[in-house]
Write a structure and sequence with these properties.
The complex is a heterodimer of chains A (about 350) and B (about 375).
Chain A (H helix, E strand, L loop, with lengths): L3 E9 L5 E10 L4 E5 L6 H9 L6 E6 L2 E2 L10 E4 L11 H11 L4 H14 L15 H12 L6 E5 L7 H18 L2 E6 L2 H7 L2 E6 L2 E6 L1 H6 L4 H6 L6 E10 L2 E6 L5 E5 L9 E7 L4 E3 L5 E10 L3 E8 L2 E8 L9 E6 L5 E4 L7
Parallel strand pairs in A: 3-8, 3-9, 6-7, 7-8
Antiparallel strand pairs in A: 1-2, 1-4, 4-5, 9-10, 11-12, 11-14, 12-13, 14-20, 15-19, 16-17, 16-19, 17-18
Helix pairs in contact in A: 2-3, 2-4, 4-5
Chain B lengths: L1 E3 L6 H5 L8 E12 L2 E12 L3 E5 L6 H9 L6 E6 L2 E2 L5 H4 L1 E4 L11 H6 L11 H15 L14 H13 L5 E5 L7 H18 L3 E5 L2 H7 L2 E6 L2 E6 L1 H6 L4 H6 L6 E8 L2 E3 L5 E4 L7 E6 L4 E4 L7 E8 L3 E8 L2 E8 L9 E6 L5 E3 L10
Parallel strand pairs in B: 1-21, 4-9, 4-10, 7-8, 8-9
Antiparallel strand pairs in B: 2-3, 2-5, 5-6, 10-11, 12-13, 12-15, 13-14, 15-21, 16-20, 17-18, 17-20, 18-19
Classes of the chains: A alpha+beta (about 350), B alpha+beta (about 375).
């Protein structure tokens, strides 16, 4: 049995709002699982139900072999991390790290031992007698992470912990969390609306929308083989390009033809789908769109986004707007005509009605 | 290899528009502003052309908001001049400058409908705009920003992205001569920011109205700007097109402002024809001229991994997948270096790798880092 499992978990508020709509999830010990989705998708409610801060109105939650569905937070052995708050300037690093333990009423000797242990693990021992203002920025972040994880619960639950940090700090903190989580092996559930954060941190990503789970998979699976149009557009920066059209085929292969007929591709289907004909949407990531003088898609450059290490070229084509990832050193003039090809091995096809991957 | 002249750059000279560019619409010359004990602006000189999106990039406290408020006329400079379309506006009040300011926190009247929020600036006393003209401008702005279907909805019932579109709408219905944007996308979800970035660039280009856009977000600055002004502690550090600033930053401070993960900055010394790290690891071929100790700047995507099984001191510590590329944190010459590789490269934590710095894309700075923090 999984270390943490959710079975048909639901949350309906007294006013009838259904925040979480019967979700199943199994997390193995030591995994870092990210719940990803836009605001209102149910990710935070799910996390709070695992923590016991909200009670599920249906279904069951099991943690380390126990049914914890009706238990109070303090009985569950979970560690909730909301944000990496600034350090208390008037306390030493030792007292900053020990603060949550003292607040929980631990004996002085126990606090000391636990702080020593986390400091040894994170290589912070020499900093313990110092005050926050004596630390370099990177060390301050390490200390705030140490304070957040000084307790060793069965699972860490992190609710957008990097939200208030600026982008440089976020990146550094992300790396610290990943390194520390790998080293400690504590199972972690992490909530964010930032797909890049999810991709970079997760062993597996759970994409949520409208109170339901849309897909569970490794970052590569979610990125390469999104289960539906929502996942395809939400994951990736930018999201997938979509081209509307029709698909006809059976027996594992199909021909996709775009509405304007510029795109005709034969695509292998995932097998589970039966006969599939009718309206469909082709999805392709910007790095698999290539400029090619012999390409079948004609378009005009409307906008360019320079990114430093690359550029996104926005092209208005008959089949809609397409974003192409291009070399940073090769600018395109606005208004210039281009022809494009799509890498056929990287194409996804989604059903026109259900929006599910075919 | 580019050699950054880091010390005695005159920001004023760098900030002016080249002679070939169209006539500048907005000029600031030596603008200073003290707010209480802090010198928020320490002599700002910059120009914005008549059809340009100028991004002012800087960390919190750089003076970005004070700069915008001074251009808008909400603050009076202690020294210096501001001209618009050749006319000195330094002493003019905000209304007489005909500029529109959009803030980070949307600032709509929450109980009013979207339509009433949009009408408000047009019905200001003394404007005397005919009713038909008011309605046609609102219809135009609503269509452009795709908010027509919300026009009769109460503003407080909109999502963050919708509210910010309305706030931008309230700025454009006035048809001002200049847009001033103070981190308008900062409070929005990452996904929404991404799409509004493109929308705003295309909207501005269609209106052909100059815009000064203030942000601390380097991705916004790089992707949106026609030119970027890098601001730090009330001073302009560098001005240029995004690619120029990204590839040829004048100082380590500017280099660190752009790019994510940040540029690797490595203290090096010249020995035996090579620039070497502190432990002697050779990183780059060195010319014989100039100082013997420098700071080597190399962006993560400009370090390649070579094949081969020979002994190497570099070990991969962290592997982060970010879509088309993979970011590695590599322990090399006793330091930590970020390397971005194509996704196809199959690299795992613990792997020994052979990094090689692209000599054409490395930058050498004169100054050595202030702290021992290192890259």
């Amino acid at each position: 049995m999984s270390f943490l499992s959710l079975e048909r978990v639901e949350k309906t508020y007294p006013d009838g709002t259904r925040a979480v709509n019967g979700i199943d999830l199994a997390v193995e010990q030591g995994e870092l699982v990210v719940l990803l989705g836009p605001s209102g998708c149910g990710k935070t409610t799910t996390l709070r139900m695992i923590a016991g801060l909200e009670l599920a109105t249906g279904g069951a939650i099991r943690l380390a072999g126990r049914d914890v569905t009706g238990l109070r937070p303090s009985q569950r052995d979970v560690g909730m991390v909301f944000q990496f708050y600034a350090l208390y300037p008037h306390l030493t690093v030792r007292d900053n790290i020990g603060f949550p333990l003292r607040a929980a009423g631990l004996a002085r000797a126990d606090v000391r031992a636990r702080v020593d242990a986390v400091a040894a693990r994170m290589d912070l021992e020499r900093l313990l007698p110092l005050y926050p203002k004596q630390l370099a920025g990177g060390d301050q972040q390490k200390v705030s992470l140490a304070r957040a994880i000084v307790r060793r619960p069965a699972v860490y639950l992190m609710d957008e912990p990097l939200g208030t940090l600026d982008s440089d700090q976020r990146l550094a903190m992300r790396e610290l969390i990943r390194a520390e989580q790998l080293a400690s092996g504590v199972t972690t559930i992490y909530v964010t609306h930032d797909q890049e954060e999810a991709m970079s941190l997760a062993d597996r990503i759970v994409v949520m929308e409208g109170g339901r789970i849309r897909q569970v998979g490794t970052p590569a699976e979610v990125y390469d083989r999104p289960s539906d149009l929502f996942v395809a557009s939400f994951v990736g920066s930018p999201g997938m390009n979509f081209i509307p059209g029709e698909v006809a085929g059976s027996g594992g292969r199909a021909l996709f033809v775009s509405q304007a007929g510029q795109v005709r591709v034969e695509v292998p289907l995932d097998g589970t789908a039966g006969v599939s004909s009718g309206q469909a949407t082709l999805g392709i990531r910007c790095e698999h769109v290539h400029a090619d003088a012999g390409g079948s898609i004609r378009g005009r450059v409307v906008t360019e986004e320079y990114l430093g290490s690359a550029r996104n070229v926005h092209i208005e084509a008959v089949c809609g707007r397409i974003v192409m990832r291009a070399d940073a050193a090769a600018p395109y003039a606005l208004g210039s005509e281009v022809r494009l090809n799509l890498d056929p091995s990287q194409i996804s096809i989604f059903d026109g009605a259900t929006e599910a991957r075919l | 290899m580019t050699v950054g002249s880091s010390t005695n750059e005159t920001p004023g000279a760098a900030a002016t528009v080249p002679a070939t560019a169209p006539a500048p619409f907005l000029n600031l010359r030596g603008v200073r502003k003290r707010l209480g004990a802090t010198e928020a602006l320490r002599g700002i000189t910059l120009d914005a052309c008549g059809d340009e999106l100028l991004v002012v990039l800087g960390p919190t406290g750089a003076g970005k908001t004070t700069l915008l408020r001074t251009i808008a006329g909400l603050e009076q400079p202690d020294a210096g001049t501001i001209t618009m379309a050749g006319r000195d506006v330094t002493a003019l009040d905000p209304a007489a400058r005909d500029v529109a300011l959009v803030f980070q926190n949307f600032s709509l009247y929450p109980r009013w409908s979207v339509r009433r929020n949009l009408e408000f600036p047009l019905r200001a006393p003394g404007r005397n705009i005919p009713e038909a003209e008011i309605q046609s401008r609102i219809a135009w702005a609503a269509d452009l920003l795709r908010i027509t279907r919300f026009l009769d909805r109460e503003s407080s019932r909109l999502s963050g992205g919708e509210m910010q579109r309305v706030a931008i709408g309230r700025a454009i219905v006035r048809r001002p001569r200049l847009f001033l944007m103070d981190e308008p996308l900062t409070n929005l979800d990452a996904k929404l920011r991404e799409s509004l970035r493109v929308e705003l660039v295309e909207l501005r280009r269609e209106l052909k109205t100059p815009m000064v856009f203030v942000t601390h977000d380097q991705a916004e600055a790089l992707s949106m700007a026609d030119r970027i002004v890098v601001l730090s502690e009330g001073r302009v550090l560098q001005t240029g097109v995004p690619r120029e600033i990204y590839e040829r930053p004048v100082s380590p401070v500017v280099a660190l402002q752009l790019g994510q993960p940040a540029i690797n900055l490595i203290p090096v010394r010249r020995e035996g024809g090579q620039w070497r790290a502190a432990d002697g690891t050779p990183l780059l071929r060195a010319d014989a001229s100039g100082p013997g100790e420098r700071l080597l700047g190399v962006r993560p995507e400009n370090v390649a991994l070579l094949g081969g099984e020979t002994a190497s001191g570099a070990v991969v510590r962290i592997v982060e997948h970010t879509g088309p590329t993979t970011t590695l944190l590599v322990e090399w010459f006793g330091s930590r270096v970020h390397i971005v590789v194509p996704r196809r490269a199959a690299v795992h934590p613990g792997d020994r790798v052979h990094p090689r710095i692209d000599p054409a894309r490395a930058v050498l700075f004169d100054q050595t880092p202030q702290s021992k923090e290192g890259p």
